[in-house]
Specification:
The protein has 162 residues and is an alpha+beta fold. The chain contains 2 helices and 9 strands; from the N terminus they run E-E-H-H-E-E-E-E-E-E-E. The chain has a domain of 99 residues. 15% of the residues lie in helices and 34% in strands.
């Protein structure tokens, strides 16, 4: 069963899990300030300089999870080879920079990689296999349908441009 199933009657956009989690958050907030050190909200605040103005951060790296199987999405791409009409080495990444999102919920994602990461496409099985010490933009972009994803993890904001 994938995303969108188990909707609560009268609330077309909420699943029963969503409703229960919303109730839990409300109850927790009544007891204690509910802050996360790492979250999408925190990463966006860091990027915008709300927590540390002028910090030089320019990217919120994300990991997406496919709807249905809830596995991390691994994107593939390649730059041009040394000559026109040639293809360079295929690269893979679980970590992306969102470049744009259309009204139809399609997104252009740029693969982020640590230039020192020696893990090849075949051995990159899980986001934990990927080096994150020095993530950099690759210029390799893919287009995805965001309706195919049911979960996003935001990593702490970073700078990928020199």
């Amino acid at each position: 069963m994938g995303c969108g199933h188990g909707r609560v009657e009268g609330r077309e956009n909420d699943s029963c899990v969503c409703e229960i989690l919303r109730d839990i958050v409300d109850a927790q907030n009544d007891v204690f300030e509910n802050c996360c050190e790492t979250s999408c909200e925190q990463s966006i605040n860091d990027l915008l300089g709300e927590t540390n103005p002028g910090n030089g951060l320019d990217t919120v790296p994300v990991i997406l999870y496919c709807a249905g199987d809830c596995k991390p999405f691994k994107g593939f791409g390649a730059k041009r080879g040394n000559g026109l009409g040639t293809i360079g080495d295929i690269k893979a990444s679980f970590i992306f920079r969102v470049k744009s999102v259309t009204e139809e919920c399609c997104a252009v994602l740029e693969l982020l990689l640590d230039p020192d990461d020696q893990c090849d496409c075949e051995h990159l099985k899980d986001p934990c296999d990927q080096e994150t010490d020095n993530l950099q933009n690759t210029g390799i972009c893919i287009t995805v349908d965001l309706d195919c994803f049911c979960h996003v993890t935001c990593l702490p904001a970073i700078s990928v441009f020199d």
